[in-house]
Amino acid sequence: MYSFCDLIFNDKATIRSFFGNTNNRSSLLGAKNCNPMKKLLLMFFLLPLAISIGHAQEESGVQTTAAPFLLIIPDARSAGMGDLGVATSTDANSQFYNAAKYAFMEGDMSIGLNYTPWMRSLSKDVFMGSLSFAKRINHRSTWGVGLRYFSMGSINLYDAGGNSMGSENPYELALDGSYSLKLSEHFAMAVSGRYVRSDYAISQENSNIKTINTFVVDVGAFYQSDTQVIGDMMGIWRAGISLSNIGSNVEIVEGSEKIQMPTNLKLGTGYEFLLNADNSVTANAEISSILVSNNDFGSLIYAVGAEYKYRNVFALRTGYFHEDEDYGNRQYATVGGGISFRNANLDLSYLINTSNVNSPLENTLRFSLTFEFGNTPNTPVIESTTASK
Question: CA-CA distance, 263 to 246, in Å (whole number)?
Answer without folding.
Answer: 5
